[in-house]
Structures
1.
Amino acid sequence: MIVRSHQNWLRMLFVWDGSVLRSIVPQLVFLFFVAMFALVTDGTLFGEKVPLNTTPFTLIGLTLAIFLAFRNNASFERYIEARTLWGGALISSRALVSTVIAYVPEDYPGFDRQAFVRRVIAFSTLLKHQLRHTEPRANLPVQPDLHYPAVAVVHELRERLAKLVQKGAVDHTVAWTWNRQLDELMNVVGGCERIASTPIPFPYAVLLHRTVYTYCLMLPFGLVDSIGIATPLISVFLSYTLLALEAIAGQIAEPFGTSPNSLALDSIVRHIERSLLEMCGEPVPPPVTVKAHYELT
């Protein structure tokens, strides 16, 4: 994900990083040549005039715009839900660590508070790797062969806190608070797994993809008689709008990926780490620069 400050209208016209233009340039070049072919041949194909005008494109374009809006709304809802879940992970992690620091003495026998906090930090890191299907670094406190390492960490945290309750270090009211925050972390894992394992139905993507490309390929032949030499320019511009909307919908529908418009999980995980370490009075690592990270992808 690329996060940038507000820019003036002129610079916005030429933004490259973070836009989907880079991914659709080959398609636009191809459609430009199709439009040039329609212009040079005066809208004929295999020696026959293609009987198209602007009227059907107006009707089809309206329907296509509604379908694209539905697809983008569905994708954006997944994106927002994913971001809300990760915001919940930050809130619950802070609340859990805060209550542990407040109610458990730093020198309580048999309980390493720093190690506990490190495991809370490891939860978000492991969840990020689980969602991206990447390998976590070797020094994280979890067995390497687990399929659900974030769940394993939450379970271990619950066991550690349960021992404190059994020893009488805290009362059951505090234990109930801890369980509530741990349950929230479990809900975050389940919610993220639901989004990751339930993509938008494939037929929607296929239908939209076919409709957009068919419309863009036919468009120059419908415009050439009415706008003439401007056909390549107008056709490519309209095609850019439709192809970009399709590309954006595809990117934000997978919020845990590494595309420029996916969630900035590296930055979010580092934000959680910095917040929890600061609560413990430990050195805080530098934040992840979101834009610099994704310019490399």
2.
Amino acid sequence: MYTIGIKRIYDEPSDKDGYRVLVDRLWPRGISKKDANLDEWNKEIAPSTELRKWFDHKAERFDEFTRLYREELMAKEEELNRLRTIAKKNDITLLYGAKNPKINHAVVLRDLLVNRL
């Protein structure tokens, strides 16, 4: 069984990461494309610009952000299925730039992918 993990893009790449996907709409500051060691950069699966700006990584908004982001993801079923297919063959790591490892969109995306494998 393969895993879907999450990790900050600023953390060192590891052989255990498997297929590495950056799931941010914006390229993270201070990271070169070479150092990112990505298999893909998937901007489309990231929250909309409007939602990202509204959330602003405020803990008190995370529950509402989660609900709204899940709604956005429902319109991206084809892309979600593509990532699920990859996860059935390889470990996959969703990479994000946010500072907080518990309140960010990669947590929501991972949970949605895992619960529907």
